[in-house]
Structure formats: C-alpha cells, structure tokens
Design goal:
This protein is an alpha/beta fold. Helix content is about 25%, strand content about 20%. The protein binds adenosine-5'-diphosphate, the ligand Cc1cn([C@H]2C[C@H](O)[C@@H](COP(=O)(O)O)O2)c(=O)[nH]c1=O and zinc ion (ZN).
Length: about 270
C-alpha cells in the first residue's frame, strides 16, 4: 500500500486516512479507497431521503453526490475539549476507511501552522487557510472529490463558514465536522459559527471546568483589557469560567486599568 505514492500525493500532507489508531498516535497517509461501512454517528444522522427532500426543496435539483452529506457542530468555551472531540471524530472516520482532511484558520498560529493541536498537546496535520473557499483549489479537484470527511477547527475565524459547509455537505456529500467558539469573551456570537446551526445534523456544546471554583464552565474570560474581538492566545490570556465567576471577572477587569491583570477572584484580590 505504501508503495503507491502517486495516489498518496493526491491527498497531500493534511488529508489522511487511518486504519484504526486511537489518539494520540499521529495520522499517516494511505490509499484513498472507500470501505462501504455505515458511518459512525455523532448525533442524529440525517437520512438520504431527508437529503433528497432538501434537494427537492432547493428547486427540484438532485444532490450531486451519491452520499448524503452531514454537518456536525462542536461548540463551547476555550479548554472545553472541542479540538479533542474534533480530532477523535476525524480519527474515528479515518479508521473506518474514509479519507479525511483537517482545516484550521491560519490566524491561529499558536502551535505552528502545519497542525491542529489541542491544549494538552495532541496534534494532527492540517491545512491552515485564510478562508475555506481556498480549500478546493489548494487540494485540487481530483483530491477534493476523494475526501469524505472535512474537519474544521477554529471555525469562528472563517467568514465563509456557512457557504462552505452548505456546499460541502449539500452539494458534495461530505461529512463536515466543525469545532469552534460559539461566543467570544463578551459572550457575543463569534463569527459565523451560530449561523450553521440551522444546517447541522448535530450540535454538541461542551463545557470546561471553571478555573476559579471547579464547577462547569460555559464561558471564556479574557484576563486582559484588550477589546478587539480576535485575540489569539491560550491560558496566558483566557480562562474558562462558570457564570458567577464570569460576572465577577468582568467587574474586576473593568475596574482595573493596566492591560495585563492576574485574577485571583477566590481570594478577592487582584494582582497587577
Ligand atoms: N484552564 C485550563 N488551562 C489550560 N489547559 C486546560 C484548562 N482546562 C483544560 N485544559 C486542557 O485542555 C484540554 C482540552 O483542549 P482542547 O481540546 O484543545 O480544548 P478546546 O479546543 O475546547 O479549547 C483538556 O483535556 C485539558 O488537558
Ligand atoms: C474567547 C476568545 C478567544 N479568541 C481566540 C483565542 C484562541 O486563539 C482561539 C480559541 O481557541 P480554542 O481552541 O477554543 O482554545 O480564539 C479570540 O480571538 N477572541 C475571543 O473573544
Ligand atoms: Zn467558577
């Protein structure tokens, strides 16, 4: 199998296909042939007849792909395990013989651009792109057609998320798994992530642990007074918090002038 390099190169470095390797083994490339196994379900699966009905409602056009596409959305605050869940799903799909490709926004340069990396260091090769519309061009049509599953991380940074997901699932029959922040540090909707909920087969909202009390964390607190919406960072800039500590944290941050603040809300102190 490894000797057939021509087929391998079609799918390039970040389009991979695994037999059955659990995390954190890194993915390898292999032949893009298809096993006719039932798709593992991430949530309620959409039936082919539902897709046909959707195609009809788009003006009687038939779906172009033989497959019914799917869209699965994973949201939650930072550190909730969104990337971990995305990588697991993609590996699961690859393990059943499907060709998978992983994309992240090139704005996320935290751990280099060649991989999607979780906060605890699990990584997989990816395409780092400025916009999703460049994916098909980058891959080439032949390789794109062979991809069964597209994973998208840091989805909040892609302005063309809605159109890409729509085309990939409805027109091209791809399984699209999307991970991203539903809300920004102000708890406003972030990018277009919420706009794809009406397109989705399943939506999973994950929670983290509040860094200050250990309860479930639904929100991401920014620890600095920087106000631009997009600010790349990790635990140095953000922390997952419960509702109470989100509200307490906002009060503390607004009351303090400097740009960098260390919060110690449990002891009601703020260190500058
Ligand atoms: N407050 C935290 N600070 C740093 N790392 C954390 C924190 N909470 C959880 N983690 C680690 O982050 C991992 C989840 O990382 P990841 O899947 O990249 O999350 P997400 O994509 O939702 O930000 C957890 O398994 C844990 O090891
Ligand atoms: C809340 C918030 C986050 N960001 C940035 C910070 C990180 O670079 C990513 C989120 O990464 P993760 O994989 O979910 O941990 O988004 C931002 O730009 N603005 C925000 O308000
Ligand atoms: Zn808390």
């Amino acid at each position: 199998m490894r000797s057939i390099c021509a087929m391998r190169s079609l799918l390039a470095a970040s389009t991979f296909h695994l037999r059955s390797s659990p995390l954190p083994r890194s993915p390898s490339l292999a032949l893009p042939f298809r096993l006719n196994l039932p798709r593992p379900s991430f949530g309620p699966a959409r039936s082919i007849s539902a897709t046909a009905a959707a195609a009809k409602s788009r003006g009687g056009m038939e779906a172009r792909s033989a497959h019914s596409g799917e869209i699965h959305v994973i949201v939650g605050p930072m550190f909730a395990g969104k990337t971990t869940a995305l990588l697991r799903r993609v590996q699961l799909e690859a393990g059943t013989g499907r060709n998978v490709a992983l994309i992240k926004s090139d704005k996320d340069n935290r751990y280099g651009l060649d991989s999607v990396v979780t906060h605890d260091g699990t990584k997989m090769p990816c395409w780092a792109l400025p916009e999703l519309s460049s994916f098909q061009d980058k891959l080439g049509t032949e390789a794109y057609d062979k991809v069964d599953v597209i994973g998208i991380d840091e989805a909040q940074f892609f302005d063309d998320l809605h159109d890409f997901c729509c085309n990939a699932a409805d027109r091209d029959g791809k399984i699209v798994v999307v991970a991203g922040l539903d809300g920004d540090y102000k708890r406003n909707k972030f990018g277009s992530v919420l706009d794809i909920i009406p397109l989705a087969d399943s939506v999973t909202k994950l929670t983290a642990r509040c860094e200050l009390c250990g309860r479930r964390a639904f929100f991401t607190l920014r620890k600095t007074r920087e106000t631009k919406t997009e600010l790349i960072g990790g635990a140095d800039v953000y922390m997952p918090v419960c509702r109470q500590h989100y509200l307490d944290g906002q009060i503390v941050i607004e009351a303090v002038q400097p740009t960098r603040i260390v919060l110690d809300l449990e002891r009601s102190t703020v260190m500058l």
